[in-house]
Backbone:
């Protein structure tokens, strides 16, 4: 028996906050969609996995999921979820028609092997299966912003995905419903008279929709995971010039900083901190100062490289903290721009980045205004 997984991932996910679409956000060093697809691709009952994606996301999809087993070539979704599901079903019918199909939201990365197995098992005696959770809270109907009448919760369930069906019946149901306004596949099935069994779901199998959901997902990944901390320190002396680069921001100054690259002492220290947390040596190992290709290079390339190594090691960057040590230039007018630049390079929320400055009260080489030093600490989560 052939069982296909159809993963719907064509939305934009704007409510999850700025940045990449939510299905390509990193969780524990992996894109959300990869986590979702990998559960299905590794399940022994699943024969193939097909994703429905936005037309602008092909490069992101290939980078996130391209090497997973059992994946078919993705198809482009439509203007609505219902249209996207139909596009996926038609593609499955045209290529290698399965017997059963499990339709799942790409932004539910914590679907379990148990849920997949339970859905497949339910289809042995039912035309469809819905993973759902019974409503346990008191339900009230809102009335002009006030708490209105109590709604009886007996028999109420919260729908999740996967929603599983015998393939031929759900394909015909979606064809008949084309152009409609159904909120999920069970509604499409019900309109076609398909009976759907309830399979008890899982509280962890929630859909990432808002920024708060992203934070909840990150907290879940921390359960039982490992945390590591790395430290970095760097120094550059002043030399000729009319500006300095600090934490990715160009700051006018009476002198410049000497260095083989752009001498961004803040990004160099943070790069070393991340490399230290994953046991990958230091910045000089990866970008030797004797190599002419790095002469004058922008240091954001070094930091992005370290972040990429961390992701491949299965780590997510939880926090980055940089302290700049100098008498001049004045740092405080630029700290927010620095935080934003570091967050963009690392692809993390700016709330996870700290940049601050201090002086040495006129002591030492920084006190004599001979150069700038920086120290950084990076906290990474594994697992």
Residues:
């Amino acid at each position: 028996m052939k069982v296909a997984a159809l993963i719907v991932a064509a939305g934009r996910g704007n409510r999850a906050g700025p940045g990449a679409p939510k299905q390509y956000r990193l969780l524990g060093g992996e894109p959300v969609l990869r986590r979702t697809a990998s559960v299905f691709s590794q399940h022994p009952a699943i024969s193939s996995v097909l994703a429905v994606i936005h037309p602008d996301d092909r490069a992101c999809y290939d980078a996130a999921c391209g090497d997973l087993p059992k994946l078919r070539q993705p198809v482009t979704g439509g203007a609505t979820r219902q249209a996207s599901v139909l596009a996926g079903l038609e593609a499955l019918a045209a290529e290698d028609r399965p017997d059963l199909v499990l339709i799942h939201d790409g932004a539910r990365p914590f679907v379990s092997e148990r849920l997949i197995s339970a859905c497949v098992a339910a289809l042995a005696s039912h035309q469809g299966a819905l993973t759902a959770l019974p409503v346990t809270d008191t339900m009230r109907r809102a009335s002009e912003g006030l708490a209105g009448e109590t709604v009886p919760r007996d028999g109420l369930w919260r729908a999740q995905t996967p929603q599983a069906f015998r393939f031929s019946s759900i394909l015909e149901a979606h064809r008949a419903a084309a152009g409609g306004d159904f909120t999920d596949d069970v509604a499409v099935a019900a309109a076609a008279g398909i009976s759907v069994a309830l399979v008890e779901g899982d509280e962890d199998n929630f859909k990432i929709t808002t920024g708060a959901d992203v934070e909840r997902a990150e907290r879940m990944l921390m359960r039982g995971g490992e945390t590591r901390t790395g430290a970095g320190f760097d120094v550059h002396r002043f030399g000729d010039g009319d500006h300095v680069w600090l934490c990715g921001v160009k700051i006018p100054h009476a002198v410049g900083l000497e260095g083989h690259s752009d001498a961004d002492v803040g990004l160099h220290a943070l790069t070393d901190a991340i490399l230290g947390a994953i046991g990958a040596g230091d910045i000089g190992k990866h970008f030797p100062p004797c190599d002419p290709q790095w002469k004058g290079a922008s240091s954001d390339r070094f930091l992005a490289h370290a972040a990429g190594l961390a992701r491949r090691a299965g780590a997510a960057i939880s926090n980055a903290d940089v302290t700049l040590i100098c008498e001049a230039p004045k740092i405080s007018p630029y700290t927010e721009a620095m935080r934003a630049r570091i967050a963009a390079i690392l692809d993390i929320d700016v709330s996870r980045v700290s940049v601050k400055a201090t002086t040495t009260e006129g002591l030492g080489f920084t006190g004599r205004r001979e150069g700038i030093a920086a120290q950084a600490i990076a906290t990474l989560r594994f697992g």
The chain has two domains: 3-222, 226-382.
